[in-house]
Amino acid sequence: MALIRSTNGNCPCPVCLVPKAQQAQGHNVHPVRKAADVQVIFTTKLKRGQKKKFLKQLSLRNVENVFWKLAHSDLHKALSFDRLHAYHLGLFGKHLWPELKLVVEGLDRSIRVAINNQSMVFPIWQGLYHFAKGVLYIEFSDGSKYEDLSKIIVFISFWALTAETSRRGYALLKLICRYIECDMYASFEVHTTETVDAYWQCIHQVYKALEKYIPLCVGDKKHKDWNFAKNHSHIHAPEDILAKGVMRNFSTQVIECSYLRVDYESKVTWKTVTDYLRCSPDFYKKPQYDGAIVDAGGGKCVIVKLHFTFVIDCGSKLYPLALVQAMQIPGSPQAQCNVDYNLALYRVKAKRAPVFIPLQSIIHGALLYSDPLRTDEYLVVDTIETGDIFLRLKEMFSDQGLA
Ligand SMILES: [Zn+2]
User: Fold this and answer.
1) CA atoms within 13 A on the CB side of 323
2) Which of 88, 290, 359, 393 could make an S-S bridge to 277, C-beta 3.0–4.6 Å?
């Protein structure tokens, strides 16, 4: 559409003039392309060789663009970041995921099997694809599956890819974490100055994490070049949001028992959103006891795991209650705290005695992933849905607000 040369051109980006060899760097600012500048080259009388040279420098084809006929428009500004192709099918599906599989293939078979098994037993959650047949030995072609895979990948593999067992794997997980944070901000349905700024910072963190990861890949049979278009294109995403609104306005992505329904005000859109929580010994032939965030009063929130829900009929009034296991932040060893911090994991531990709470005190569902190496410890999955739990957990854990 922009009539630039292929991705092997000198400047492969249709929006800016980033040199091909600098697409994996985030610290340089490059001149943006302008349709008017290109038109000047075509309208100025130049020798044929000169014109060809100019066009080649800018990675442009020697063809006049039909979109120049649209008055008061600039094609390069109209081109927008596409989350589905750039993130889910691109940076993650085509690059980060194959890289992780490559690292995992180098591990002991028992570890590979264990990671694959963890993907199969990952808790079911509405809207999150359940990988019942595992993830390591299946090829995906669907962007939404890659998106959901990216949401669980750190949880199912962090315990195996430690700094001790695989320096490269650990560095890659940190890189994937930064990517996921970018995707979470990109998914927001409402943005503020602060969230756009946070998105910017996350994008730069991706490039920093990549700088640390690349030196660990020395010795690979095939050298991977991280200078590719989808590793650069998100640098323009925050500008797109500022200019055109949130990403759902210009995305190509198409926007689904027994439960208890919870309505809450989203931290992203400030609209009422509904969660469906399960508390059943036989949900699709498996027990399913969801987690939840509960208003503990005084501005404090607590994470709990549901055990049982019921209603007390007292005269003319009904009192819906739940028996829950409350969670607290565990006193983990420093090494575990470091891993949790680096991989942005929110760890909680079940208190011994269950307690009764009024059902109305539940303000949000919480997907709890059981740490396979630590009894009674869970990781709160912050990657589900479109950002609310992502922001809520950042807030809760920033001031250690758990009871
Ligand atoms: Zn660019």
Assistant:
1) 8
2) 290
| Amino acid occupying residue 216 | L
CA of 43 to the centre of ligand 1 (A): 25
Evaluate whether 38 touches 65 at the Cβ level (below 8 Å): yes
Q: Are 210 and 228 in contact (CB under 8 A)?
A: no
- Alpha-carbon gap, residue 159 to 371, rounded angstroms: 8
Q: Is the pLDDT of residue 272 over 90?
A: no
CB-based contacts of 364, cutoff 8 Å, min separation 6: 262, 264, 275, 292, 293, 388, 389, 392
Strand partners, 311: 320
User: What is the tens place of the pLDDT at every residue in 298-350?
Assistant: 888 899 999 888 888 877 788 888 899 999 999 889 999 999 999 999 999 99
Quick one: how far is CA 281 from the chain centroid?
Answer: 31
Ligand 1 centroid to residue 39 C-alpha, Å: 20
- Among 263, 97, 85, 264, smallest CA distance to 186 is for 85
Residue 255: per-residue pLDDT:
44
C-alpha 352/C-alpha 292 separation (Å) is 17
Backbone angles phi, psi at 260, to 5 degrees: -135, 130
Residues with CB under 5 A from ligand 1 (ion): 13, 15-16, 18
Number of neighbouring beta carbons within 10 Å of residue 357 = 20
DSSP 99-131: HHHHHHHTS-HHHHHHHHHHHHHSPPBTTB---
What integer is the mean pLDDT of 147-175?
95
Q: Which residues lie across from 306 on neighbouring strands?
A: 324
Number of Cα atoms under 13 Å in the Cβ half of residue 291 = 23
Q: How confident is the model at residue 114 (pLDDT cuts 50, 70, 90)?
A: very high
Residue 112 has pLDDT above 50, yes or no: yes
Both structure tokens of 296: 């503990």
**What's the pTM value of the predicted model, to 2 decimals?**
0.80
